[in-house]
Amino acid sequence: MLQHLKDLYHWVDVQGHRIPAIPRNLGITALFLCAAYWASSILITHTGGENNSALVFVLAVSLISLLTSGYVYGIAASIIGALFINIYFMEPYDAFSLSRTGYPVAMLSMVAISCVICALTARVKKQATEAVRREKNARALYEQNEKLNAEKTAIQLQSDRVAIRENILRAVSHDLRTPLTSISGAVAVLLASPEVSPKNISMLNDIKQDADGLIVMVENLLSVTRVQDGTIPLKKREEMLEEVAGDALLTTRRRFPDFHVELDLSEDILYLPMDPLLIKQVIVNLLENAIRHSGDRDHITLRLYRQEDWAVVEVRDQGHGLSPEVLQAIQAGQAMPLSGDATRGMGIGLSVCQSIIQAHGGFFTAGNHPSGGAVFRFGLSAAGTA
Amino acid sequence: MSEKQTILIIEDDRAISNFISRALATNEYRTISAFTGKEGLSLFFSHGPDLVLLDLGLPDMDGLEILTQLRDLPREVPIIIISARDRESEKVRALDMGADDYVVKPFGVSELLARIRSALRRAERMKLSQGIQRDIYQIKDLTIDLAKHQILLDGEEIHFTQNEFKIIELLAIHAGKVLTYDFILEHIWGPYGGSGSNQILRVNMANIRRKLKENPSDPKYIHTELGIGYRMLDD
User: Which of B100, B94, B104 is nearest to B118 (CA)?
Assistant: First the structure.
């Protein structure tokens, strides 16, 4: 029963608030005044007294001020009510008169009481809306806080995961590089030593080459793990491309001292954001690829230039060019077929290049030059750099 | 030099320490090996080496800590850092704290020997000059005349801007030592010169390179330490 009443009240409340404020308030005032008039008319036929009607009107006024917004309606209703009582429910009936003793006092006190009730209900209402507003604010704050907490935990988790991966990568790289460094270094010492017979020197050379090859392979595998799924952000910073290329060429020359690579710089100063260690590795891979697989020893060129908004690095050889299968595989972005000694290692190196350039948002192309030889090109966005 | 120079190797990996030691021995250096930081410090004080090779990743103490302790001593001994590849900020800090040079694992024997020679030569020069600055620096066919404010390449004068000249001058005074970007920026443009970016230095360097017709893949005068700084070659 109570629930029904509550529902009804709620329904009326909701429906009522669909009507604009002024007509609604006026309607409520008129409705309750009429009701009070009607109730007083009934009461007066039974009791004949005039005091009851004043109470009925005070009740109506208090209800009006409760249900309307602001003071105005309640005060207006109290004045109208006083007039009603004077005219309809007091002798002389159906006429306005202030002749009876004490009557103006009664009327004034009724208006005064109504006004006080108005003021009190208005205050109660204000406090009620204030309370509702505060609760809403508090809830909003709480929800906001919950959301922030959830976000914070998510970020924390994510950065923990990244940190753990970084640490594992670092540990693995340390544990692989350290022994490889000492193998390669020890062999170099032996190679320089006069106590090694010429027969053993070729074997030592093989060990040295394989150790150095493994070092490169480890670098490649670590880099590809780093960029592959995009969870570890690139360590990008502004870098001078010619310095990265120069460093790459120095590294390559150390491994292949007998090969000649020409570095061709344009006048353009290419200073742009990149992960320099990774880009260096791409260039090293492309140079090594040209040295080992092109059959060209002396005409490999490394060229840097700006083309519109791209900083382009081009590695070109004048060897026998790329076979259709290799070309197709590169264009499809697939791993290279690893059959045969000739292409051993080529697949991994090139797909590492592709992954790294892709992670940088650059382009990577491979093709054969019309005048012979293979051309590998990659570009990094140099938009907004001078 | 009649007397053998002594090199202290502070490196926890025995295999690496061994091959370095052998390589140095065949090149007429005397070596002492320490496998922990504490041992390294005590051997330093008992033997007074001419150069220290210091691995930053030691088990018992931070390599940078050792560096600080060695740098606080009155006797300046050249220190070459051995460091992992991807720890650039660590290298930069070590260089700014007074290390002379660094090698990165995996490094080659010839590279290490070249850096050791260069650091020892520099130390020798410092001892001879007794802090008195020279007026003329000669690197191969490049003559840097600080008094005349003139740079000659193979006898012919090359014109540099004020800042370009200052950079070359700074590198020449510290020839053989790696100077970090921040070090150069602070000396040329003042403490706030770089304002967080080293672009101004890098662009100046690219221009210097073009004027000297320097090929970054085969540097004759200025070596680029990628992501770290520059070093003027001294041989």
Answer: B100
Contact A319, A296 (CB under 8 A): yes
Residue type at A310 in one-letter notation: W
Distance to chain B for A333, nearest Cα, Å: 28
Distance between CA atoms of residues A333 and A312, nearest Å = 19
Strands (E), chain A: 237-240, 261-265, 271-274, 300-307, 310-316, 363-368, 374-381
The Cα–Cα gap between A272 and B139 comes to 31
Find the length of chain B: 235
The answer to whether B21 touches B33, Cβ cutoff 8 Å, is: yes
Averages of pLDDT over each 10 residues, chain B, 235 residues: 83 90 92 94 93 90 90 88 78 90 85 90 82 80 88 89 92 90 89 74 91 85 90 83
User: How far are the Cα atoms of A48, A199, A304, B210 from residue A318, in angstroms, in the given order?
Assistant: 124, 35, 18, 28
Residue whose tokens read 């053993």: A200
Nearest CA to A287 out of A278, A300, A296 is that of A300
ipTM associated with this complex:
0.87
CA quadruple B72, B76, B77, B81: dihedral, nearest 10: 60
What DSSP designation does A341 have? G
DSSP, res A95: S
Q: Residue B15 is nearest to which of A182, A215, A253, comparing CB atoms?
A: A182
Helix, strand, or coil (residue B137): strand
Residues of B numbered 33-52 whose beta carbons fall under 8 angstroms of chain A's beta carbons: which are they? none
Mutation choice for A interface testing from B14, B16, B19 by most A CBs within 10 A? B19
Token pair belonging to A229: 């799924």
B/e letters for A137-167, b = 16+ CB within 10 Å, e = fewer, are eeeeeeeeeeeeeeeeeeeeeeeeeeeeeee
Look up residue B176 and give its amino acid: G
Which of A17-21, A235-239, A240-244, B142-146 is predicted with the least confidence, judged by mean pLDDT?
A17-21
Instruction: Give A49's Cβ-side CA count (13 Å radius).
Output: 6
With an 8 Å Cβ cutoff, the interface of chain A facing chain B consists of: 170, 173-174, 177-186, 188-189, 192-193, 215, 237-240, 242-247, 249-250, 253-254, 261, 263, 265, 267, 269, 271, 276-277, 280, 302
DSSP, residue by residue, A277-300: HHHHHHHHHHHHHHHHHS--SS-E
